[in-house]
Amino acid sequence: MIARLADGAARRSLWLLAAVFAALVIAPWAVNDYLLTVMIVALYLAYTGQAWNIMMGFAGQLSLGNALYAGLGAYVAATLFTRYGVAPWLGLLAAIPVAVACAAIIGFLAFRFGVAGVYFAILTIAFAEFARVGFDHFDFVHASAGLFLPVAQYTHDDLWRLRGNPTMFYYVMLAATAFAFLLSRALLRGRIGYFWLAIREDEQAARAAGIDTFRCKMLALMISAAVTSFAGVFYAFFYNNLFPEQVFNISQSIEMILGPIIGGIGTLFGPVLGAFVLTGMAESVTSIMSALGFDLPGAKQVFYGICLLLVVVALPEGIWPPLARRFGIDKAKQ
Amino acid sequence: MSFAVYLNVAVAGILTGLVYGLMALGLSVIFGVVRVVNFAHGEMMSMAMYVAVLLFAAFHLDPLIMLVPIAAVMFVFGYLLQASLINPFITRPEHSQFLLVVAIALIIVNTLLIIFGPDAQTIQTSYAYDSFQLGPEIVDASKAYAAAAAIVVTAALFAFFRFTLFGKAIRACADNYTGALVVGLDVKRFYALTFGIGAACVGAAGTMLALIVDVTPMLGPAYTLLAFVIVITGGLGSMAGALVGGVLIGLTEAIAGLLFTPSAKSMFSFGILVLVLLLRPQGILGKRSA
């Protein structure tokens, strides 16, 4: 009986997954250019949120500096491309080790000395800020003047060099988001996933049970950094310009974590759902404001702040877990 | 460069560092008692700075005179914030509290941005360009006044916690939550009072700092980080540590600004943070394992 119930839940979640994915695949035919761009942003946030979720949602390590890994990925790939003509997919092979090495340094500093909880969060912010100020004075990447990629004359989509139409970028990001989802799912169901959950719930108990908590936490951090670094590569080739002031900004890190928080920390669907809800609402607010003739820098951020406040106060577990229970996809860990 | 230049810059850095110390003290007091990390600390300070700027622009009120009124306003703000929003979160997990405060910070900094715009505003007092000469040493008057005020406020705060019954009650709440409840203290009210005191500290520090730096909305996040760097460097929960850390960071920033470029100075503060975490994780004046 219980086995059949669990099966039903699993089947329902699989159906839901397939339906959502199919809808996202055909979406470019149904929407205009503006909406497509919005959806790319939403997918970007879903992807980075999924990466953050591995660290915070699974292993319980609050990072507020994930912009660091995206920024490093962006700068490594963009520099290789503009200076040496290296294609972004090869650049990614350089970007990932750089981001992972950086994460390893942060993790080593923090986890060795028991810098945990919010102090770990502050350390991650400090490193991101360090990078922001550092890149602002790093002449090799044009410092604060910004790094620009040659804007493509796209007669055709060049997937290998990531030059092309928004539709191509959309599918790249969709594939990446699907990959991040499946990776998270595989990690969560594997041995390491159980170790992480144990650490998240009670680190001392986990250690007492024989889990090498230092190694597990390092692994969570490094995987999260590796996944996030691709988001940076994508960012660089999609927007074609990089400013340290922007890519390493703390507001980038905060935008990355809002999706999973609103959707539901530690769940698989949460980051995706949260990213789309947040982006949809933020864009609606922006367009309503501009329709009314307001053009206020910061209004979007105030909106994010209010969203975060409301969710933290009213829905501490996010919007996905209650929905999941309603759909009968219980076991909020789906 | 001659030795005198270094000495001048070092003294200026120490004076600014004393104001930083007062700011960090507010954070330390809030964390030490309420156990909530106030991630909106710098944002609260920039609120106070804008109040000072507005009062000066509109009525030509000198920040040195407005120090106490602005601190009082910030006290009320802090009290209400804790009583209404943060107190219900006391028993929530740490990250949940943290996100609540991040949300508050986000709202404050961007509301300031909407109201005042991104441009820097300054307070041009009559003594803005005055200085004192002590032998080879030239001390900027604004910085000297700001540091003196910071020392007075800090001394008052130390006295409050050591000698008054209120201060003792707050320390009791910090030492043992349950114990404080058992002896009949209204802990949540004392938490609100403490948050108010921390906010008043940062309000006073902000008013002083408005004399020294150009005020922009984006100062908030930067100073929040700086306050954390100072508190972690000095030692968590140590009031004297916050001051020592403040002076150390102020000095570092000044020297780094002289040797390299002022815009890169925060890199050196972060460098100090990393060094402290490596060599003495509990902070300069902190006790082992909190």
Report on this structure.
The complex is a heterodimer of chains A (334) and B (290). In chain A, 75% of the residues lie in helices and 1% in strands. Chain A is an all-alpha fold and 334 residues long. Chain A has one domain (2-326): ABC transporter involved in vitamin B12 uptake, BtuC (Orthogonal Bundle). In chain A, strands 1-2 form a two-stranded antiparallel ribbon. In chain A, helix 6 crosses helix 7 and helix 11 (250-263) runs parallel beside helix 13 (299-314). Chain A is globular. Residues 1-5 of chain A have low confidence and may be disordered. Chain B has 290 residues and is an all-alpha fold. A two-stranded antiparallel sheet of chain B has the order 1-2. The model of chain B has no long low-confidence stretch (mean pLDDT 86). Chain B has eleven helices and two strands. The relative contact order of chain B is 0.21. Chain B has one domain (3-218). Chain A binds chain B through residues 56, 62, 64, 109-110, 113-115, 117-119, 121-123, 125-127, 129-130, 133-134, 136-137, 250, 254, 261, 296-299, 301-302, 304-306, 308-309, 312-313, 316, and chain B through 37, 39, 85, 88, 92, 94-96, 98-100, 102-107, 109-111, 113-114, 118, 217, 221, 225, 228-229, 232, 261, 263-264, 266-267, 270-271, 273-274, 277-278, 281, 289.
